[in-house]
Fold this sequence. Notes:
By secondary structure, the protein is of the alpha+beta class. The protein is built from four helices and four strands, in the order βαβαααββ.
Amino acid sequence: MKTHITLNGIHLYAHHGVAEQERLVGNDYTIDLQMEVSLRQEDMEADDVNRTVNYADVYHSVKQEMNHPSRLLEHVAWRIIGRLFKDFPPLQAVELHLKKRNPPMGADITSAGVRITVRREEWGKPA
Length: 127
């Protein structure tokens, strides 16, 4: 049995970008998360938040990582995934989609971003 916990459309303001001006001024970001969680039937029947992954705690971890400026979205996403694996042992896999809204690139574009999917057993292994 697979259980997925999702957080969609997390909106945060942060200071990431290749250009120094982007890191100074900041921009709006949207994050979608899908997390595969190792839960047993008993965990779900218990109706106890301590026997699952609390999505409010996940949000807090994501927000803290977004507060550390980076040049590349890939780097930010990788840091967030690592933090989630560290903070939440029941996580078996994380798919994270990080989008910079209205990126300063002189184009009519809603967002630009990265999508990374990592299983726990792949975490920290060389590519």
